[in-house]
Design brief:
The chain has helices at about 30-35, 80-85, 90, 115-125; strands spanning about 10, 15-20, 20-25, 40, 50, 55-60, 65-70, 75-80, 100-105. The chain is an alpha+beta fold and about 130 residues long.
């Protein structure tokens, strides 16, 4: 599996790419493989300010529906609208076309509490 070293990870299987004060968030390669074929992504939190660990949407796969949790606090400034028509992008390209939201971080120091790629690999037993 692929876990890019330039990203941070959560115990809930989200990844975070930090660029300045903006965080791009999606689900990890491990998460999408565990979920199976993703058929729908529901994110209606654009414009909302959410705290870390709050739910920002759901992802529906053939066998389950899972909540998506904010890794950091901030305002959701953009939702990946391409997922409406191509939810399978989360399966095929979880770190690229399958990104989910962009967030203007309200407390960038929260990133320090997230896992490195090596720590995430260890957590999932890889």
């Amino acid at each position: 599996m692929n876990f890019p070293d330039n990203l941070k990870y959560t115990k809930d299987h989200e990844w975070v790419l930090v660029e300045g004060n903006t965080a791009t968030i999606g689900v990890t390669d491990f998460a999408q493989s565990e979920l199976g074929d993703i058929v729908f992504v529901d994110i209606s939190s654009q414009g909302d300010t959410l705290g870390a660990h709050e739910i920002f949407g759901t992802v529906e796969a053939v066998k389950t529906v899972s909540d998506l949790y904010m890794p950091i606090s901030g305002e959701v400034t953009e939702v990946n609208g391409d997922l409406d028509g191509s939810p399978e992008s989360v399966n095929s390209d979880p770190y690229g076309a399958g990104w989910m939201v962009k967030v203007n971080m309200s407390n960038p120091s929260e990133v320090d509490g997230l896992m490195s790629a090596a720590d995430y690999r260890a957590m999932i037993g890889e």
